[in-house]
Amino acid sequence: MSSLNLAPSPAEGGTLSHWQGLIHHYRSWLPVTDETPVVTLFEGNTPLISAPKLAERIGVKGAKVWLKYEGANPTGSFKDRGMTMAISKAVEAGKRAVICASTGNTSASAAAYSRRAGLQCVVLIPEGNIALGKLSQALIHRATVLAVQGNFDQALELVVKIGETHPIEIVNSLNPFRIQGQKTGAFEICDQLGRAPTHHCIPVGNAGNITAYWKGYNEYFDAGRTESKPKMLGFQAAGSAPIVLGHVVEHPETFATAIRIGNPVSWKQAVAARDESGGSIEAVTDEEIATAYKMVAGEEGVLCEPASAASIAGMIKKAEAGYFKKESKHHDRIEIVCILTGNGLKDPNSAIKHSAAPIVVPAEMGALLEHIHLA
Ligand code: F0G
After folding, report:
1. Contact 219, 232 (CB under 8 A)
2. Is the CB of 104 under 6 A from ligand 1?
3. pLDDT of 165-188, one tens digit each?
4. Is residue 145 one of the residues assigned to a domain?
5. Which of 13, 85, 193, 271 is the most exposed place for a label (fewest CB within 10 A)?
6. Can you give the residue range of the structural domain that contains 342?
7. Ligand 1 proximity of 102 Cβ (cutoff 6 Å)
8. pTM to 2 decimals?
9. DSSP E strands: which ranges in 87-221?
């Protein structure tokens, strides 16, 4: 074998594929042409990780739970799927600058892809309510970071006004190319499982992602790639649950700051996804989110950010209410996918707050051994 051949032979355990990003892989499903300059960090192709411990909690024999680990995207969240499309199309249209309002992940992604493309990037974040990792990303990628003394909804209203009156491209999920890119998450799940799951659990904030996944599942189904579509089970934080309550929440609250949103842009589309799929959008409390956040890290070895854990909290809540048991009467299998939208490293403060503190010990064997209890 030549020393430059980096792909291991089958005898060495398979081949390494050279994934070149989701536009490259799903090109025929996306509104791009040969003229579109593809701006990519090789996002997508994220792991679908089985979660046997969580599956035991479903209350149905043989039920399977999978975690779609979107934290493995280049900037650590699902936003990269939409951003590769939005930034590529902005460059194609000759735009020089982009703007977004963000609870953190969109700003990190917009900042990174803008750097890649040489575009100016302006991000509006709610002052004091963004996780440390996300803020660091926007700053290091040289975005103009404006910490607005208000919440996400107010920041987004301002962005829309600026976008209407200035030559700057909005890259929030009201940009249709964001949804186009994000729908590839559904394609990947179907390609990885070999079929559609029966249930899809997802956190809901501005509601772009639930909209995008539903679009993706429908496109694969309509093209005959899959024989079924999942029920869409969306979850909002109880203090920020406008869709559940049926009205705008003026002062949204939750420690899951990524989904601290009171007036989602894709509200109608989320309701359509819920109703067309026969699913639901429900609220989970901060306590339930925190429990799920600790459980998935502590039992499955998978660290997500608090907002992502809303999908697991919701799944467990529904399992405990007997929902999947009832569902198993209409399905020959229960196969649940939870979207873990963001990497837990984005929010180290939450991880530390929800864990025991390190044990401080003198640098002596005896002192160490007092704390090491081997089974
Ligand atoms: N999970 C995470 C980690 C997020 O960052 C977001 C949204 C969501 C879930 C909800 O997705 O808005 O499509 O319903 N974050 C946006 C942002 C609002 O600015 O980063 P959604």
Report:
1. no
2. yes
3. 999 999 999 999 999 999 999 999
4. yes
5. 13
6. 22-35+44-76+178-353
7. yes
8. 0.95
9. 97-101, 120-126, 144-148, 169-170, 199-203
